[in-house]
Write a structure and sequence with these properties.
By secondary structure, this protein is an alpha/beta fold. It contains 13 helices and 14 strands. It starts with 20 loop residues before the first helix and ends with a helix. Bound molecules: pyridoxal-5'-phosphate. Pyridoxal-5'-phosphate binds next to helix 3 and helix 4.
Length: 397
């Protein structure tokens, strides 16, 4: 009997949905005015970038928002706004993306990488230990792939050691922990609107904070020149007077065109999160039932955004993992593996950032990442697509 041809998935894992018509129309209007620079406003007028900042601050339930050119720039500016100086130490979970060590390197700081546990969260024991031994006063916490650790426990450790936390929310825009938006637990939070994140403006970043002084510094550092009064986020002149001559201009302003793209996608974010989670649960339910697969259970109070799906292959060696990924690839499923020795596409492991000095050995992190597989879930996939992806990934095991 001839073998039945295997079903092959044919959609792209990197295809975004189109930009909403309202955003395209607003962008056209802005282009027609020629006024793309955010500080090119008349007396009393608010730029598109300022309007975005107001609306995002409201969405985030944080008083201040500063829009910048990328998530990576948001992090650099956040570190400078906190007053981090060369050789300051920053604790950071080792499971993250390359712009995070890049931002720490850019300000001359020394990252102290902390282990992760089997749920991809920062390892609390290692955090406590490294906070004690390094005496670092900062923690850069990446909510990597949207997995939010126990924020109560982390906040407690930070308080005990007088550590200021920076949250990297590139994968948690719109996510919550015990009802509180991710990003509202530390001193300052950074978001990305780069194409592959939860809002797509090509490139872009947002910073939020509850501290007016940090916010004013971020405005100046982002490149407001002495036009900071037109920014709109902070109205009190005396706050700027405290910081304006002490903060460098590191030019990374967001322009009005990209601000319009972000602003006009924000109203659909809640609905998109629902759509992501619907797709995520189809894939995760199927995979959680497979032998050799671990899908860590997520805490009930974590309201995540399932824009990507991770699972761990248990008891497989390197060859078996690579063969599995190859079989899935042959059937159109693009799985990324965090165990690879060589960095590939967006995926790199902490020990590949060789420009950093004193890279530690982190056996726990390596062990978890060795088993970690990852797929994107673009919203251009419908529920049937997700069913098919799950079936292929399960049947190839
Ligand atoms: C995407 C991302 C960033 C920021 O990336 P940009 O491309 O600079 O916007 C930061 N941290 C993580 C974990 C990311 O995935």
């Amino acid at each position: 009997m001839p073998e039945r041809p295997m079903k092959k998935f044919s959609k792209s894992f990197t295809q975004q949905e189109p930009i909403p018509q309202t955003a395209i129309e607003r962008v056209s209007e802005i282009l027609a005015t020629g006024k793309l620079h955010r500080y090119n406003v008349a007396e009393g007028e608010l730029s598109e970038a300022s309007l975005l900042e107001q609306e995002y601050a409201e969405f985030q339930k944080a008083p201040f928002c500063i829009a910048v050119t990328s998530g990576g720039q948001a992090m650099q500016i956040a570190l400078r706004a906190l007053g981090i100086k060369p050789d300051d130490k920053i604790l950071a979970n080792a499971y993250t993306l390359a712009p995070v060590p890049g931002a720490m390197f850019a300000v001359g700081a020394e990252p102290i990488f902390v282990e992760i546990d089997k749920n991809w969260h920062i390892d609390l024991d290692d955090l406590e230990e490294k906070a004690t031994t390094s005496k670092a006063k900062y923690l850069m916490l990446s909510h990597m792939r949207g997995h939010i650790a126990d924020m109560d426990a982390i906040s407690k450790i930070c308080k005990k050691h007088e550590i200021s936390m920076i949250e990297d929310c590139a994968h948690t825009m719109g996510a919550k922990w015990q009802g509180e938006p991710s990003g509202n637990f530390g001193k300052i939070a950074c978001f990305s609107t780069q194409t592959y994140k939860h809002i797509n403006s090509g490139e872009g970043g947002l910073i939020t904070t509850f501290d007016p002084i940090i916010a004013a510094r971020a405005v100046i550092i982002s490149g407001s020149y002495m036009l900071y009064e037109k920014h709109g986020a902070i109205t009190k002149e005396d706050i700027f007077n405290q910081v304006k001559l002490q903060s460098p201009n590191c030019s990374a302003r967001l322009d009005n065109v990209r601000a319009a793209l972000i602003r006009h996608q924000l109203p659909s974010l809640e609905e998109n999160i629902r759509r992501w989670n619907e797709r995520y649960s189809i894939i995760s339910a199927k995979m959680a039932n497979q032998k050799n697969v671990l899908v860590p259970e997520r805490k009930q109070y974590e309201e995540y955004v399932g824009s990507s799906f991770q699972f761990q292959l248990e008891g497989l060696n390197e060859n078996q993992i690579l063969e599995y990924i190859g079989r899935c690839a042959a059937r159109g499923i693009e799985i990324k593996w965090f165990g690879a020795e060589e960095p590939k596409a967006f995926t790199s492991r902490y020990d590949s950032w060789k420009y950093l000095e004193n890279l530690p050995d982190l056996p726990k992190t390596k062990q978890t990442l060795f088993k970690t597989c990852d797929i994107r879930i673009p919203l251009t996939f419908d529920k049937n697509d997700c069913q098919m992806i799950a079936e292929i990934m399960a049947s190839e095991l």
